[in-house]
Amino acid sequence: MNPLRALRSPTLGVVLLCAAPTLLYIGMLLWYPHRDLLILWKRDFGVAPAVVVAIALTTGTYLTLAWLLLERSPGHLSHPQRWALAGLVLAGSLALQWFVTSATEPDVPAGLARRTFSWSTGGYWTVGAGVSDVREFLAHYVERAPSYPVHVSRHPPALALVFTLGTALFSLLPAAAQPLADWLRPHSCLSWVSVDAPAPMMAGAVLGMAVEIATAMAVMIPLFAWVRRIADERTAAWAAALYPLMPGFGLWVSQFDRGVALATPTILYCCERLVAERRLRFAFLAGLAFSAATFVTFGAAPIALMAAVYTLARWWQLRSGLTLEAARWLAAAWAIALVGSATIWVAVYAWAGLDPLALYRVVFDSHLGIEFPFWPFVFWHPWDMLTMIGLPIGALALFAGWRRALSLTAAFTITLAALSLAHVARAETGRVWMYFGPLGVAAAALVWVSLSRPARLAALALLASQLVVQSAVLRVLVDYGHMPESLPSAELPPDAIKVDTRFGADGHIALLAYQLQPLERGREGRIVLFWQRMSDRPIAAPYKGFVHVATDESDQTRVAQHDEMPMRSQFPTTCWQLGQVVRDEMPLYVAPDAPPGSYPVFVGLYDYWTGQRPPTFASPPARQLHGSVLLPTPAVVR
């Protein structure tokens, strides 16, 4: 074959289009030493080789069986083939999630429990499990949201209510609740809830864990139904089979963002039937699905733009243009969709008084408080998302789908560009934008089935290679907190100033010592506290520590202060073990206009939920004052 003709071959061009970014990314994951360019997450090369082999073998076996099942079928699948596909996708999805998670969690169920309980990876159990009055919870959600753990404070209440439902469910099943609670209780210390929480409340976490995995896997049902309507069953089957191979599908287990993707094919399926059949009820159903998605997270709002672009493009394809009469009909359809979109919100407002506009302002203000530069993230955000759905999938969807999957590629590309330029997405987006996954996979499947067999095999090999390497090397859920067994007891340094203090009615927490260097105005200093659990029983309350550098001993005004759970909120007091010494470094920022001099320093604890300070006992030269300890040495501000 003429080499110049080969270079002009559409099939070869598509393969090169998939290969270039994928091989570049794999190479950088393995050999590029920094995280400042295309590597946005932590890496760890210490994974057991057996785990990497297990991920590779699972991926290879899954792809081989999918190939044998689907390459031999024409456009229509028989009933046995459909059942075989469903079984394969179910088993393969679970196996891939298990082995990918095992790369960071040797005990996978325990790891999922810790991620679920941890306030820093969600906090939804922390907020929702103890809700006894749902109506009251919703009525005050707006005012309380800023005080909730970080993820809950930036989202509507639906995910917290999953755990409320879990508590209610296990209250009806006490025989099942108790053994689950006994197993889960040691892992719950990473939450901000007492480890003595009732058994149904503790066991309710299981429902949340199950719902997250179930909704993530359920995406493949509407995905199959939608692609079957716009193509054929074989294409739809490949779309469903490819979906679990997205690297983010396995990496983000225990994160509800994967389940939000359920809204994308559901809404686009309704849009397809709306355009193809001109039945306005599908406009309402699409709006209703969108209402449910936004009640879970406002981050699902861009799905509306996907739906609008897709609807217009499909109308243009199926109706060969857009007339004035068609524009009026579509306007009516969108009005009906808008009514559907408001349904759940109006119902909750009428029942409990939850104001969606007020909630949106609170959530958005919190989210936009995250400061990130604009232009770098215009490129990094979509890159992060594309690495999580798979670079071969992204390449096919973004660049190769304009002829084979025009409406899908247009919806994918325009929404991605608009969202990136709007700069409303802050921090990471690889998991937050997982709702792009079904759209990207569907567009890629339409292109992929039109390629030659060698080209399809090449694309599969690239996707599998990225999945294996990314799962083995990248670490996206590692900072959910310290478990006691992973944190050795700290040693008291020779220059630490020892104090004899106790907190709590039974003296269950001691402040053993501290280190305090001179503080400089306009700069951040630090104080290091050394705590120790003294009681045989676990510390039930999640205490926040505080340090006040006050202007005088009344502690009414301060030149510096810091309130936070121990170790930058990574090691709650509920996790502390008997005799364990905890080193807790707290930052102290002194305002530039603070007068130089010596200032009294107060250290204490308070219950996160009640704000109550425990009884405090101090021995000279330290003093008990205002429910806290006045340290024997003042802070020197220079």
Give an overview in words.
With 638 residues, this protein is of the alpha+beta class. The chain has three domains: 3-102 and 219-475, no CATH class; 113-211, no CATH class; 484-637, Immunoglobulin-like (Sandwich). Helix content is 54%, strand content 11%. It has a five-stranded antiparallel β-sheet with strand order 8-7-11-14-13. It starts with a helix and ends with a strand.
Main β-sheet: number of strands, strand sense, barrel status? 5 strands, antiparallel
Number of helices: 26
Give the overall shape: elongated
Poorly predicted ranges: 1-9
The total count of strands amounts to 15
- Number of self-contained structural domains: 3
Strand order of the largest sheet: 8-7-11-14-13
What gyration radius follows from the Cα positions, in whole Å? Answer: 28 Å
Strand % is: 5-15%
Give the fraction of residues assigned to helices: 40-55%
Structural classification: alpha+beta
Instruction: Tell me, rounded to a whole number, the average pLDDT.
Output: 92
How far apart the termini lie comes to 78 Å
